[in-house]
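Slide 14.
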Amino acid sequence: MTIQREFKFRAWNKEKNEMFKVGQVWTLEPYSVCAAVVDQHDNYYSMHDIALMQYTGMKDDKGNGVEIYEGDILEYDNRACDKKNNGDVNFLNGAFRVSNSEFNFIETIYIGNGKVVGNIYENPEILIKYYKSIYVDYKGENNEST
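Slide 15: predicted structure.
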């Protein structure tokens, strides 16, 4: 049995504050340490200058079929408390997960069951606003002004 999966990456340029598609990832043998990334225009970047994010192999079901990468922010239904949650996609213990890192809580949901609403680099305010609303709900205070 052969499992085929598409391996794609994108990267955040820390200096220019912009996202780009990765064309190639270079490694150094024998340790397979990632040494450089090449964008779609053949520009080279050191791993120190970027944040590399892998494609999960899934697209969001509730949005427009957007590809889901590490670092994306998903809005998804939390069936346990019948409300919408936001969390960021990360790779942990051999699987892609959605994390609400404010409370060190990890949702082990099918991450395709959500909508990409941004990413942690271009739209951190989405998670900040969400975490503030959770904190206020948790404390039992009125959060209509947030």
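Speaker note: The first strand starts at residue 9 and ends at 13.
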